[in-house]
Metal-dependent hydrolase, endonuclease/exonuclease/phosphatase family
Amino acid sequence: MLYRRFKQGFSGFSGGTGRVRGSSSGMDHVPAFESHRYIRLLTFNIQVGINTASYHHYVTRSWQHVLPHRGRIDNLDRIANLLRNYDVVALQECDGGSLRSGYINQVQYLAEASGIPYWHQQLNRNLGPLAQHSNGLLSRYRPLDVTEHRLPGLLPGRGAIIARYGDEEDPLVLVMMHLSLSKAAQNRQLAYIHDLIADYQHVVLMGDLNNHAEQLLTNTPLKNANLIPLPATAHSFPSWRPERALDHILVSPSLEIRNSEVVSYPVSDHLPIAMDIALPKGYLETF
């Protein structure tokens, strides 16, 4: 496994052997979806493993977006310690295996280090050996299918991953994404997402949406999606002094929210968001 090979054989940054395109672990050893229990969800913008703890770090540590740093692996291990507590994880701002990450696919590394059997990396912006901008999905359950979607925008490089679980005719649909910064681009992207989820009853949208929930659910194409947000006080950015709610888990009314929180785990410039959900009894009877 990548995690074990790296821990056993690391002797500095060299390479060019890592994958430079989106990839997946395969599902041979992934357990079936356990529909009878609640599901623990987490979304986390990991900022390619850079530990940012103040605004001046955006300047003093900016070189880590281009060049490797030994402390990055230690930070990824701290992130993995958190991820092992969850069932399905959405990751944003991962590197798929370039110079800055020491040619390590960070999605694969975090899956193996946290003991989560299924992972899927979506490569959104390919800068060759300099950077492999990616989203990631980690899952303890075997999804029915996983699809990648390129989100519209003036600048390419934003994407969404959709994973479906459970009943083929009435699935639980998880959409993991990282939206653009501009409101115009967000509206185009959310219109695209709304069309993808319109026919499903049990939907979860999760990721770095770069906007507050009130704006997303009242002034974008999501206004008719009937989704339930976290409290407006669920601030996730910046991690050292959270003032803005940019990271979200939005769910359909059919899904019972058992717990939701901003996780106090400052190892990126964003804090992770967690939610426990349960499917309705009528849905569970179909299994």
